[in-house]
What does this fold into?
Amino acid sequence: MSSTLTKNYFELFSLPQQYVLERSDLDARYRKLQHTVHPDRYARASDQERRLSMQQATHINEAYQVLKDPLRRGRYLLELRGHAIEDQQTTHQDPEFLMQQIELREVLGEIRQQDDPLQALDRLAREILAQYRALESDLAQALETDAETEQAVSLVLKMQYFMRLQNEVQELEADLEDELY
Amino acid sequence: MALLQISEPGEATAPHEHRLAAGIDLGTTNSLVASVRSGVPDTLPDSEGRHLLPSVVHYLATGEHQVGTTALKQAADDPLNTVISVKRFMGRGTADVKSLGSVLPYEFVAGESGMPLIRTAAGDLSPVQVSADILDTLRQRAEQTLGGELTGVVITVPAYFDDAQRQATKDAGKLAGLNVLRLLNEPTAAAVAYGLDSGSDGIIAVYDLGGGTFDISILRLHQGVFEVMATAGDTALGGDDMDRAIAAWVMGQAGLGEDLKHGLQRRLLLAACAAKEALTDSDQVDIAVELENGTEWRGTLTRQRMDELIESLVRKTLGPCRRVLRDADLNTADISEVVMVGGSTRVLKVRTMVGEFFDREPLVNIDPDKVVAVGAAIQADILAGNKPEDSMLLLDVIPLSLGVETMGGLTEKIIKRNTTIPVSRAQDFTTYKDGQTAMALHVVQGERELVDDCRSLARFELRDMPPMTAGAARIRVTYQVDADGLLSVTAEEQTSGVQAHIAVKPSYGLSDNEIEGMLRDSMDHAEEDMKARRLREQQVEADRVLEALQAAMQKDADSFLSDEERSAIEQAATELAALRNGSDHRAIKTAIEKLESVSNVYVDRRMNANIRKAMAGHAVDEFK
It folds into this structure.
């Protein structure tokens, strides 16, 4: 079994196993890794090497997708610490948070009735992003040590709520723009 | 025996070992071939100095055919046997073809696999065969100009081509006897030609409006790395549609009905196209068309009138422009340059509207016809091993989401659009009924919720699963997309290990057998030719394996292999080298497989070491 294919994503990128990372540094490492393994570098190699190159490039792409996304990176780090979060795991005990989600969804549901739907949607998107960023920085703190893992899991679940909401905002935006132009 | 002396891929040892490679822009209207000669990439002209080869093939009752300008001259006189714009039909089904534009100048018949065949005097031909005839002409041109056989080619495709269209293009290359090193997206090719030329880093938008296809791509350029951030488009929208709009206007002016003979249709379209081109430099143009009754219709088209006729078509390109920006999470202000590609961007109305949309003057100083072929030639030169290895890297994406049909005719997306390739994703599914032992998988591509609104790529079945209660089975479906953007799918029942694998051959594509059959036909069905071809293929692969291995071993066999491992590899290599010169293609194949299996551990260790080396010794801030 190939060692780099089984390495965890942080090890693969030679990064410390921690939540906080610098995006430009991650990008540079990604480009360097792809320079090394990408199938274009093996266009004239044997079928065997080309297969391996494709597997490695695929693995590095997957790792990069996870590491560059604040939510997926958080989930991945928790998984490495033995706290895997299932896709369907959504229950949340914080009534205040759930109330807020319901309110935001109501706003989203009424966007079409607004005078300027696109502008109203833009306002909503900004609010969602601000809340998401706040959770992200809380998560960075919670993941600094192993002591606050439960808190970290709860933050990741909250971020997932916002991510879904954000996706719906984007879908509506696409629909509105398509209707408008 | 003495080991052969061969250089490592990517490192030419001697200048005379320059490998001949070419980039091919297989366009809807025109095709080009380009190559890097003495370090300079340029398109190659034919013997009469023409760079553009009209993508037109004229088929004769004798079974012969003509390609290019000579064929185009027959377009009006022999419309049914003169195939133009064949790219529009690549990878398409009969139903799609009917919906493609209201005016179809030739007759289609349904082929066996549902693939539409074009009825000509030389027989019923698939779009893949017609494309192969065009590619063959370009291959001959390149080999005559460059003075030798091509090692490999890069063929460009619209970024927005789906899996079926890509597969059809690759099949055409194969059929024309070409070693297709890579399928390259046209906007990426243009970005390479532009980016390497200007040497500037930043985010660029490539707006590519050709004869029959439209693409918009956003790329980030960073020190020789071309990273596609998002791509969108329309594979059935282009300059042809403008011609049709103008032709429809002429028909209205001349009082012609819908039901016209093919010849007149073709004359109208040619006149419309000429008028469109003339209106780039003039404010108005005179049009004359010979009618069926022998009289001539004459009229004048102003640029303003044409702009009105084509405005809605150009507007249709702006939707995808908005979408790529959204997908890349960017605003127009983030774009540092807008590059115009494709002959149809010569139309002034296109430039104005695109300029207004991006709020900046688009770049039109590079030849929009040649830039794609030039970019492909640069990539081909690198892939063939004529350039230092670090010179450039292209990171491309899949244009359309790949999914699978689930209960109720719904699509479950497995790989989302604009994911960087190569990529692999797995998803688990389960059974619907108690005791279910087989499962039908339907692979689709597209963004819509309903399967019927997406493109069907392939159907296959996973059989012989052990019967279990509904919901107990765990079927893992894995999609793998390679660097050409081509998909293969595996399905495995996790508890029993029952597997099914399929390289997705599109529903309207050709099977390997069909391709082989056509090759056989094209070579006068001589059994010897087929054998010779198979032998040649295995010899090429044997050379490639030996070449790569021996270069690697000269460099670092000592660091990675024990004496035992080393002598096992050397023995297998010697055996292969001996068989390679024989005439038994099966024996060569077996020897290759044996060598690969003993050297597996070495190849693996080397690549892992390379990865470690790439990351090793770099402090965190060294990358900043």
Remarks:
- Residues 4-16, 619-624 of chain B have pLDDT under 50 and may be disordered.
- Residues 527-560 of chain B form the longest helix (34 residues).
